[in-house]
Amino acid sequence: MNGNIYNETDDDLRPEYDLSKLKGGIRGKYAQKYKEGTNLILLEPDVAEVFQDNKSVNEALRLLIKIADIKLKKAA
Predict the structure, then answer these.
(1) What average pLDDT is seen over the chain?
(2) Residue 51: CB partners within 8 Å, gap ≥ 6?
(3) Model-level pTM greater than 0.85?
(4) What is the pLDDT of residues 32-57, one digit of tens each?
(5) Cα(71)–Cα(66) distance, rounded to whole angstroms?
(6) CA dihedral (45, 50, 56, 57) positive or negative
(7) CA 59/CA 43 separation, integer angstroms
(8) Beta-carbon-side half-sphere exposure of residue 48 (alpha carbons within 13 Å)
(9) Three-state DSSP string of 9-68
(10) pLDDT at 3
């Protein structure tokens, strides 16, 4: 044993943490939403430079869907 024993009482909170404001939380409030997952998609930096908000990304993807659909219909 190395003598470096962790003691929980040595772990002081920073002064800016006011525990009185943390009272009244609801256990599991967001558990179901967490379980369902998310549709968050992260853009690579070069793509994010061009598409700076969700509206521009959605418009570009909808256009791509239309183009792909047109090409699929012509091939059929």
Answers:
(1) 84
(2) 43, 57, 60
(3) no
(4) 988 888 888 899 999 999 998 999 99
(5) 9
(6) negative
(7) 15
(8) 5
(9) HHCCCCCCCCHHHHCCCCCCCCHHHHHHCCCCCCCCHHHHHHCCCHHHHHHHHHHHHHHH
(10) 61
